[in-house]
Amino acid sequence: MAHRNRYATAQRIEALDAEKDAISICHLLAGYEFPWDITRALEVALLRTFCVPSISRLLDKTGEFHNHTQKRYDDTGIIVSELFKWGYEHPRGQAFLQRMNAIHGRYEISNDDFLYVLSTFIYEPVRWCDRFGWRQLSEHEKQAIYYFWREVGKRMGIDGIPPSYEAFEAYNLEYESTHFTYQESNRRVANATREMLLSWFPASIRPAADTAIPALLDPPLLQALDWQPAPKRLTALLSRLLQFRSRLLRQQPPRTLPNFFADQSIRSYPQSYEVSNIGPPSLLKQLNNRPLNK
């Protein structure tokens, strides 16, 4: 039986307006309801972006995913987490969003690629939580996630954001079916990220972890990265373990203290970080000499 207060936060979310209160809803989802799940989902989202050759070629060319893999991962996690924690209307959230825009402004990135990456921040967390979360996301929450990232996208200057959750999901699926194509750059940036993930484990279990990484990834993603699928028994085992975890969490009371990625120990910044730390090392001087509101 679930803890009698387990759904208190979910009920609080349902009382909010999906569009007007999108910041508050996403704050509760990312910090309280699904902090671990959303982080894992965004790691899958990162891998999915590598499946689009126009994106992987740029990432491969900059060298950031080869030379500063952990920092690139941490910087992305920090920016997303700061937005979830503070929202895009708070000065701190605005500062990190402006920093992201300043970094992106140094590269030639197509609007279509921006739009696809934005869509992954909506639909990968939804799909992960529906599979492995302690509860599934409500339609109300899904709409709020769409409205949250739609507003972020507008502040990034992205054009043509589809006008509804359903339309954007259709765009996401169509874009993947059209653009997921293997190129060597896909594999190079994905392999660098895989090596980073493996570095988090003790050396003795890295071979097993390496075998497990593809276990929860779908065939189109694996094919576009040229990764071998995990053994079927291992895939089934990991799925059962995650579902068992969800059942255990269902018995717990709701979280009363937040657990945002930005509040955790971050490998690249063991002491702390500021906006001025975020970005490719080769660009930090230029970024930090740039007015923040431009």
Describe the overall structure.
- This protein is mostly helical.
- It has one domain (12-276).
- It has 15 helices and no strands.
- It has helices at 8-14, 22-33, 35-49, 53-62, 64-67, 69-86, 91-104, 111-132, 139-155, 165-179, 184-199, 206-212, 219-225, 232-250, 284-288.
- Helix 2 crosses helix 6 (69-86), helix 2 packs across helix 9 and helix 6 (69-86) packs antiparallel against helix 7.
- The protein starts with 7 loop residues before the first helix and ends in a 6-residue tail after the last helix.
- The mean pLDDT is 96.
Give the gist of this structure:
By secondary structure, the chain is mainly alpha-helical. The chain is about 65% helix and about 0% strand.
Domain tally: 1
Following the backbone from N to C, one meets helices and strands in this order, namely HHHHHHHHHHHHHHH
**Cα-atom radius of gyration:** 19 Å
Shape: globular
**Helix/strand/pairing category:** mainly alpha
User: What percent of the residues sit in helical stretches (DSSP H or I)?
Assistant: 55-70%
Number of strands: 0
The overall pLDDT average reads 96
Strand content: under 5%
Regions with pLDDT < 50 over 5+ consecutive residues? none
Main sheet record: none
Number of helices: 15
User: CA-to-CA gap between the ends?
Assistant: 53 Å
Outline the secondary-structure elements.
Layout: H1 8-14, H2 22-33, H3 35-49, H4 53-62, H5 64-67, H6 69-86, H7 91-104, H8 111-132, H9 139-155, H10 165-179, H11 184-199, H12 206-212, H13 219-225, H14 232-250, H15 284-288
Helix pairs in contact: 2-3, 2-6, 2-9, 3-8, 4-11, 6-7, 8-9, 8-10
